[in-house]
Design a protein that fits this description.
Layout (H helix, E strand, L loop, with lengths): L2 E8 L2 E9 L15 E3 L3 H13 L4 E8 L6 E7 L5 H7 L3 H11 L4
Antiparallel strand pairs: 1-2, 1-4, 2-3, 4-5
């Protein structure tokens, strides 16, 4: 594959995603170097990410995924309940904490 995807799910909805490429000839991610890009997830990736968060009963999740080059299907690598979002926010411009707060207020948690 050409890297991995970080998909954020908050309250059962995808709030955004980014692609983190790998270095040529290796498996090391380059997300922290600023080469990550914002992406729009397709329906299958969105559904898979939401189902992964729901299966683990996690309201806020950073889901790392890969896409199969042969058929384009997305697969979950891991689900992070406390995912790092500094690079994600810088790359996408999405305020993750703000989205979490909006969801919590809507749930009348705070």
């Amino acid at each position: 594959n050409d890297g991995e995807y970080r998909v954020w799910v908050v309250g059962g909805k995808v709030i955004g995603a980014m692609h983190r490429p790998v270095r040529v000839g290796g498996f090391e991610l380059v997300g922290i170097t600023g080469k990550s890009t914002t992406i729009k997830v397709d329906a299958q990736m969105e559904e898979t990410a939401i189902k992964a968060a729901e299966a683990l009963e996690i309201g806020v999740a950073a889901i790392d995924m890969v896409k199969d080059k042969r058929d384009g299907k997305a697969y979950v690598l891991e689900v992070n309940r406390a995912g790092s979002f500094d690079t994600f926010e810088r790359v996408t411009g999405i305020n993750v904490v703000g989205k979490i707060m909006e969801w919590l207020v809507g749930q009348q948690v705070i």
